[in-house]
Amino acid sequence: MSRKPELKGRAARLAQLFPTGRAQAARTPFVLLVVLLLGGGLIGLLVLNSALSEGAFQLDDLQRETKNLTDEEQALQRDIDAHSAPDALQRRARELGMVPGGDPAFLGPDGKVKGVPGPASAARAPLAPAPEAPVTGAAPPAAPEAASPAPGPTPASSSTPGR
Question: Which residues contact 157 (CB under 8 A, 6 or more apart)?
Answer without folding.
Answer: 106, 107
